[in-house]
């Protein structure tokens, strides 16, 4: 995927650290309609796993943190069930601002276009280069588009992948699970999502020099 435009000021020096990049993103104007501020990635440099979602939601925009709304709470539950400590991983979004349309007092989520995803891509790929995860997990179709440059159905892409030089894995976005109606369907979908996260953990632990399970798991070892 080629970037439509580089969001970095061409006259500014190339960011050398994640803190440099975060300052650049925070100072930039939103490239989608809506968002009041950038929501930066969260987690340690050198985290073994980086999770990439679509964009911040209403709560993320208000709190300035990724994955703190309903989908984030479901992700936290699944991470805990998979014995992955959220504090040990990195979480971010393909698009750094909340795209929304107003309906009265409500702010209604709007899916970013392919062009908007492309405009944010330079930031995302630089972010991953600076964090240096062993595995990048794409949560949903927008993350897959950002990481591969291709619009791929999750049902076909789900599983191990490669993202522009990064070892990867594709699964659903937790918001997909929240949209399901039937209880049986919700249970099956959650079980499949949990199986993906357990597989992700195994892949990270199995690489040469891989993370000790204690570094990822709560209360294990």
Description:
This protein has 221 residues and is an alpha/beta fold. The chain has a single domain (18-205), classed as Uracil-DNA Glycosylase, subunit E (3-Layer(aba) Sandwich). Helix content is 42%, strand content 15%. It contains nine helices and seven strands. The chain starts with 17 loop residues before the first helix and ends in a 5-residue tail after the last helix. The model is unreliable at 1-5 (pLDDT under 50).
Per DSSP, the total helix count is 9
SS class:
alpha/beta
- Helix % is 40-55%
Order of helical and strand elements: HEHHEEEHEHHEEHHH
CATH topology description: Uracil-DNA Glycosylase, subunit E
How many domain units?
A: 1
Tell me the CATH superfamily. Uracil-DNA glycosylase-like domain
Strand content: 5-15%
CATH architecture: 3-Layer(aba) Sandwich
Basic shape: globular
For the report, how would you describe the main beta sheet?
5 strands, mixed
The CATH class turns out to be Alpha Beta
Unreliable segments (pLDDT under 50, ≥5 consecutive)?
1-5
Span between N and C termini? 42 Å
